[in-house]
Amino acid sequence: PGNDGLLNFFKYFFPGLTLDILFNSFPIFRQKWFLTALSTMVSLSTKVLVDLASGLILKFPFWILVWQLRFSFLNHAIFGLMSGILGYYLYTRFLLQHVA
């Protein structure tokens, strides 16, 4: 089941759930590019929380987990922002094409 065992399911479930909750609860997040980018950054960063939880379950020392996960968090944050900007651009392009 992967490096995280049964927690591997949650690595893919939590980002989608977070994004669905943010977009459905606050529709303005779909209308502004920077809010879309921030929401995708937050949702993609939940994967790091699953890594942290699996490390705590395996009883790794906390400082080692934080040391190892800082690059992972930075990586997920940067790519979350970039994917949010790209997603917003594509969403508005296709939405405007089908409305016109």
Detailed description of the structure:
The chain is mostly helical and 100 residues long. 81% of the residues lie in helices and 0% in strands. It is built from three helices and no strands. α1 (8-25) runs antiparallel to α2 (33-57) and α2 packs antiparallel against α3. The longest helix is centred in the last third of the chain and has 38 residues, at 62-99. The mean pLDDT is 86.
Give a brief description.
With 100 residues, the protein is mostly helical. The protein contains 3 helices and no strands.
Per-chain topology:
Layout: H1 8-25, H2 33-57, H3 62-99
Number of strands: 0
Biggest sheet layout: none
Unreliably modeled segments: none
Oligomer: single chain
> What string, H for helix and E for strand, traces the elements in order?
HHH
Helix content: over 70%
- Report the total helices: 3
Strand content: under 5%
How many whole angstroms does the radius of gyration measure?
Answer: 16 Å
What keywords describe this structure?
100 residues; mainly alpha; 3 helices
